[in-house]
Amino acid sequence: MRLIEVVVAVLLAPVAAVAAAQAPDPNLARDLAATCASCHGTDGVSQGGTVSLAGMAKDNIVRKMQEFKSGTKPATIMHQLAKGYSDEQITLIAGWFAAQKVGK
Amino acid sequence: MSPPAKSSAMQRRDFLKATAAGFGTTAALALPGCATMGGGSSRKVVIVGGGYGGATAAKYVRMWSNGGIDVSLVEPNPEFISCPMSNLVIGGSRDLAFITVSYDNLPGRHGVKVVRDAATTIDTGKRTVGLAGGGVLPYDRLILSPGIEFMWDKVPGLDNADAQAKVLHAWKAGPQTVALRKQLEAMPDGGVYVLSIPVAPYRCPPGPYERACQVAWYLRRAKPRSKVLILDGNPDVTSKAALFRKAWAEEYKGIVEYRGNHVLTDVDVATKTAKFEVQDDVRADVLNVVPPQRAGAIAREAEVVTANDRWCDVDFLTFESVQVRNVHVLGDAIQVAAGMPKSGHMANQHAKVCAAAVVALLSGQPPNPSPVLNNTCYSMITDKDSIHVCSVHQWDKDKKTLLPVPGAGGVSPAMSELEGIYAFAWAKNIWADTLA
Predict the structure, then answer these.
(1) In this structure, is residue B88 part of a structural domain?
(2) Model's pTM, two decimal places?
(3) Which of A50, B90, B364, B401 is the most buried (most CB within 10 A)?
């Protein structure tokens, strides 16, 4: 291992330890959001025909998903898929997409 | 093939701990800006198979490691040709170009090394992949997305290349798709198209029933006296049953006939005759046999075929083989968990769970302890109308597997043009998510 790698690793070690204590998996939101990407585009940037989720307000995504879940928002398929995700997961997904750049 | 020694659960846990400890300091290599400083010491992932599973894994390992992991994708075909939507090419409403996507964005945008070659040997001890062209690729982790191979021994009359060029499967999109289209175009009006379906599990459960619809769509317009005869090895339609039955009873009334419990035992190629375990022989004008399937041959070479001598058991937290360390398996080749279909959408989802796990493990981090997958599968009934089935699969920590969420998922109430529009949107988006 080269010196720079040792230095970086040592400097990052306390940061990593704190992060590990607070969030067991820092990539959980990213991984959950990736399950949406098959239809809504990588990182939520749609290729057309589905809604682009990248950059959409977090509250807006949460509200729509809850409406799909409860059946108040008509849908062909999202009412069935939304029921598969917990409220906590929906919040994580919404936060992650809200933080993505539009038109990336 | 002699059975390889199985690694015990204890060995496996110890290995993972050792991996985490040993690789901990290399995490720095995966940081943005540090990636190029790693030089020759960066971790190597080799992916075999550039379908929905392998191509997605290649892209996401590069994305999620910020370019810090070296990824080689071994694929002999020059372009990706999608099985989903290929029935529209057989029906004639779309052409092969529509379902063909370039691999160019994987190297261009993501730095994937696309190796146009076939993997022929795997040494899981030395961790190398041997290529047909003579090259050898070393790996830290190997991801196999080998798709399926056909069990020709179950259909002896088709166990040679000449027979396979006459009685087509068209269950791997490409030349066979175009050839089956040509057979249908050459069939006289009043002819019978016979489709043989294997006993489940097989690639794409609703695919054969969609194909019957697309062939019927073509025949209704071009050869209205012709028939579609579905001879299913299963006792009943295996997916979206009520919706397909309705389509055959109404949309394609008098054209499509369905018969269950037809387990194919052989084919006489000269007379285009299908033979069955119990039922009488059936002669066809165009005979289309979807043969029984198992994991692609390279899985056998890697000794990861562990279920019924056909499929590969994996740990669903990582998609690593339960038998061979550092070898992951994706897509149609795996032994699925309950309610998980063998679909392209599923392979794309497997790939992301696997990519996240591989990036984590190679950075000394534990994999995501609660992966989620979903499936969305559209079947085209006409050239415009579609139906769907969907499901969401969550990790069950007690049962240590992925299970469908009760109350979630479902099917369409009826076919519709709106769902047809969404089906094409699905294709456009998943092709980009996989390859662009």
Answers:
(1) no
(2) 0.89
(3) B90
